[in-house]
Amino acid sequence: DDGSSWNVNEQGGRSESTYDEETGCSISVNDDGSTGGWCEDGSNWWEDASGNRQESSYDEETGCYTESRWDGSVETRCESYDEATGCNTSTYSDGSSSVWCEDGYNSWTDEFGNTSETAYDEETGCSTTKNSDGSTDVWCDDGTGSRIDQFGNEENWNQQYDEETGCSTTTRSDGSEDTWCEDGSGSYTDEYGRTESWMSSYDESTGCTTEERSDGTQNMWCDDGSNMWTDEFGNTSETSYDEETGCSFTTNWDGSTNSWCEDGSGSWTDANGNTQSWSEVYDEETGCRTNTYDSGMSDTWCEDGSGSRTDEFGRTESWTQVWDEETGCTTETRENGSSNTWCDDGTNTWADEFGNTGNSTYDQATGCSVETRSDGSSSKWCDDGTNEWTDEFGNTSVSLYNHETGCSVTTNWDGSSNTWCEDGSGSWTDVNGNEQFWNEVRDDETGCTTQTYSDNSTNVWCEDGSGSWTDPHSGETISWSASVYDEETGCTTEERSDGSTNTWCDDGSNFWTNADGSTSTWDQATGCSETFNADGSSNTWCEDGTGSWTSADGYHEEWTSTYDEESGCTTEERTDGSMNVWCEDGSSTWIGPDGSEHRSFYDEETGCQVDEHDDGSKSGWCEDGTGWWQDADGVQESWAPPVYSYDEVTGCSTDSYDDGSSFTWCDDGSTVWTDVDGNSEEWIPPTEVVNSDGSTTMTWSDGTVETVQLDGSMRIAYPDGSWEEFRTRGDGAEVWTYSDGSQWTLFSDGRAQYTDPFGETSSTSTIGSGDQAAEVTSYEDGSTWTSYMDGREVWTEASGYTYETVVDPATGITTTTESDGSVHIERPDGSFEFHHPDGTVDVGSLNEGGDLVIRNADGSTELVRADGTSTWSDEWGNTYTTVIEEDGSRFTIHSDGWEETESADGSVVVRTSPSGDTETETTLADGTELIVYSDGSEERFDPETGRTTFTDASGAVYKTREQADGTIVSSDADGGVTEFNPKTKVTTHVEGDGGEQGTTRLSDGSTRTVLLDGTEIVTAPNGAQSVTHPDGTGTSVAITTDGKLIESQDGSTTRLSTGDAGELQVAYDYVEGAGGIASLITSPEDGTIDVVMANGEELVVTMGADGSMTVESPFGTRTFDSAGAVMGAVSTRTTTEGSTEVTSESGATSSISSDGLTMTVESSDGTSAVSTKTSNGVTVEVDGVTYTYDFASETAESPDEGSG
To answer: Which of 216, 218, 460, 523 has the maximum number of C-beta atoms within 10 A of its C-beta?
Structure first.
């Protein structure tokens, strides 16, 4: 009776309300901690749980309400009533106002003076609203209505209610219709006549509402907060709510789960069991909410607009936000110097970290927004569809929209123009008046849309999923049918004109048949994927870790996987005798087919990850960043990572190594390398100059000059005289032209055409739409490459050779099968298998810790840990290890002495050889990758064009580029051009003098190569080879059960085989009168090579873990270090100029120039000789006498002695 009340909700939260007679206020205290008050004098207030308060007061004398918000803003609203008109007017402090009248009239005027008004006509029963933008809306009591936009386009509708059915139906002038019924059912029909319907029902016993739709989907939500969703294939996901924990838990149909809790915490677990979790904490004092992730990342958002973000490497970015009440503007400032300001009047300004600025405003009178930038450029876009943009040089292009035709016409500043219409048609006219056009026609009866281009190509796609594409060059049409659903089997099938089919079923299984008859299936019940190839090979992979592989020639291999809960270890066993064991404590063991064993484990006492090899050698990488190697004899070598520092004054980062060397990279792009002796090498970024005509020229240190014109065209000139040009044609096509005669053209409709240096042409077009879209590349020789949006690829050559990539939609597994019998299998979790044509297999598998364990057929191994660190070992036991430093940078050290440091952002990589030579790779802001070598040579990669340029120390230029179709084109300093197709492994090479060498693929997967001298080489997929020389003689390589048998041109043979312990055995059988090595045996286990010469002499070669090599012979012992220098009696060194000097124990010396063209020899007695290579031959001077050897002649000439 005293006006108080209280309420307890289902969670037990209590809210109370009391009335204070003295103040005349009702005060409420809510269960979330917030409070509020409403008073009889018209005032009120509200305060949230954090203490943020806003108040409203009423002044009876002025009739105004004043509202003060917690952010400091204040708004005033004044009310007045005119009895004569019966209208109530509200006026706001920003200048806006609203009017409501008793006769149904009302209006609204914004702060800019734009007014919209509504009037009611009692005679017609219609309300008409005239909006400030010129549009009109009409709503009538009988359910009819209309809208006319500001351009005169009209839309009408009629809404009727059926009391008998309880349904309301709206019919529109475009033919669409929707119905909503009181029982929850309804339907929608679009303008093309396609209808979707639904039915909704409530079950009082369960408290759940279920909605079933005509496409087979079902949605259910319940009073207890749980819900369930089933898609059209019958896959169901469920969500439940736990009132005790305040958490929602969702189990998805694919096995993944996620949770969300009221305290802000949550987690996500994918279908493979990988989990990411986070927590959320709110600080009432600061008003900040912080999310912390188990990866080490965190982000903070505060009520005052400030915040920060920390990545997994500990790098933090923060910002602040300030509101200016006087200007009505909010400014956000970031610590890198950038800022953004937005204001109540619609203006906006920004500044980036480099000082570039921009400002945008909106003009209510014209309905246009204008942005101007500090470089002089500007943009304008208007409500009527007009657009205008001006570049920094004052060139203006304008786009106008015609509401009658539905077409937008753009006139560019250079005189070209293009048109795009709502009906799908369009055209392009270049500066010379040349026109290209297309049109689009929809057939409502068939539901198909046909797009026809002026080059006679067509593209058809239909609502039922069917479609076709016609190639403009060959006239060939590729079509595909609509997918068909079989209710009895619950499977959907799609067929294509090439004979392939794709079937997927409600139970999650699927089946794929290729045009060649190969099949791929996924069985949801067994969790197994099976692939049967046309050549007879097959592959099986199951979720429980089991699987098998059968090659085309019948080789069969199986594997099983078991988990031991007691030890926490998973064991994978293969029928070849190999075994892989990985455990939850991070340890792992690999046993090869020959019994060799490799073990990896974490030593808690030392804090090191230790790898033990079969030969007794060990390596360790420790948490403090140090590491060590120990060879089989117990000799140990240790190292420490570089020390990182940053100089805020210079903006430079430095890595300092324990040998006294250092590498520095700066924000301006410059780098400095200092070696152990204190010698420094500095690299300066390219210079950029703006020319008088507005073009920009960039000059690189290797002499390359790149000029970009105002219209975007570009020319790159190289020091060797070669060049590349880019331009945009008037029809919108982008054209790259190269000095080697090749050309790449990308048309405005997405088509592409490539002409290679040899005059052969290929074209690329897009067919289909949506998930069925594909790019088809047709080559002049009849080969085709089709790449689908879902990842499928099909390559077919004129010879009949094929390879095909299919993606299993259920598992995401990608399988590539080639005609030569090789098969690549890649899984979404990163694991893989590569089956070579000879039956050997490379395997990559994930252990329990998420590490990728790679075992290659050649005996090399790699362990890539989930934290990004990795360890690699080749078949000889050479290793490298990569770790991530605290600052996020990566440090890699190789057992042969090589070291590599990569900055946290990946922009700088420094590689140092054992001899001190360096490679410095820098990624510039535009993505350009630049490598500078210590000998002065440079390599540059442009990601936009796929072009790589290498300039050696002598100035010779070598260029490589990758075309969009994957073709790689290389040119060398002598004018030679090489083209390589990675899909076919086919190579064509033309020398600078016109000599040609080419490789073609045969239908069985073999390759046929014809050398410059006419020699023909045919190589089979299993490695067998036959060589036919110009004189008709032959050489062959035959594959035997245990290796190879090589027969040389002179009749001698070489037999290669592999022993039981994995050693390579080579035996030579020479023809009479010839000799050399009789046999050799290589043992990767102990790193030795035993050599027996034909005369009976024996040599023993030993490879050291540091990359060194020792040769023992009857004449003594020589050791070569990892840099290739001979240690001991013969010494080799590289001078600062890049030349090589060799000194023998007798005192004789040899010097080879850095370009390799000049060699000087001086014996111990003072006799000297100089050999110089020229373009025509070789000149040799011995003790003042000169001899000339012409490449075209078999004799030498002396100026003193004549022919000799």
So the answer is: 460
Q: Are residues 56 and 102 both part of a single domain? A: no
Nearest-angstrom CA–CA distance, 707 and 698? 6
Instruction: Tell me if 583 sits within 8 A of 568, measured CB to CB.
Output: yes
1137 and 1119 part of one domain = no
Q: What is the pLDDT of residues 737-775, one digit of tens each?
A: 888 778 888 877 777 888 777 677 777 877 766 556 778
Write down the pLDDT at residue 723.
83
User: Which own/partner pairs from 102-106 qualify as long-range (CB within 8 Å, at least 24 positions apart)?
Assistant: none
Residues 1062-1072 have a mean pLDDT of 79
Looking at the predicted structure, is the pLDDT value of residue 300 above 90? yes
Give the Cα separation of 903 and 666 in Å (integer).
12
Query: Which amino acid, residue 311?
Result: D
1056 and 1122: one domain? yes
Please say if the pLDDT value at position 350 is more than 80. Answer: yes
Q: Are residues 1056 and 1106 in the same domain?
A: yes
- Pairwise pLDDT comparison (198 vs 1163), residue with the higher score: 198
Better-predicted residue by pLDDT, 370 or 435: 370
Q: How confident is the model at residue 1073 (pLDDT cuts 50, 70, 90)?
A: low
Predicted TM-score (pTM) above 0.90: no
Closest to 1078 measured CA to CA, from 1050, 1044, 1106, 1055: 1055
Q: How far apart are CA 193 and CA 912, in angstroms?
A: 69
**Residues 607-630, mean pLDDT to the nearest whole number:** 80
With b for 16 or more beta-carbon neighbours within 10 A and e for fewer, the 584-609 pattern comes to: eeebbbbbbebebebbbbeeeeeebb
* 698 vs 953, more confident: 698
Q: Do 1157 and 1197 reside in the same domain of the chain? A: yes
Domain holding 1072: CATH number?
2.40.128
- CA-to-CA dists, residue 1173 to 336, 956, 1183, 1190, 1191, angstroms: 56, 16, 18, 10, 10
Using CA atoms, how far apart are residues 200 and 207, in angstroms rounded to an integer?
Answer: 13
Evaluated on CA atoms 992, 997, 1001, 1002, the torsion sign reads positive
For position 1060, what pLDDT does the model report? 67
pLDDT of residue 219: 92
CA–CA separation, 1204 and 1201 (whole Å): 7
Which range marks the domain in which residue 1151 is found? 1131-1204
Is 1084 contained in some domain? yes
**Total structural domains in the chain?**
4
Give the per-residue pLDDT at 473. 62
Is the domain of 46 the same as that of 108?
no
Each residue of 631-659: pLDDT tens digit? 778 888 777 778 888 888 888 888 888 77
Helix H, strand E, coil C: the string for 433-492 is: CCEEEEEEEEECCCCEEEEEECCCCEEEEECCCCEEEECCCCCCEEEECCCEEECCCCEE
The verdict on residue 1142 lying in a domain is yes
> 132, 152, 172: which is the final residue of a domain?
152
- CA separation for the pair 789, 769 (Å, rounded): 9
On whether both 1142 and 1198 belong to a single domain, the answer is: yes
Domain-located, residue 431: no
Domain boundary among 152, 174, 193: 152
Rounded Cα distance between 969 and 961, Å, is: 5
Q: Does the residue 523 lie in any domain?
A: no
Answer yes or no: do 122 and 106 share one domain.
yes
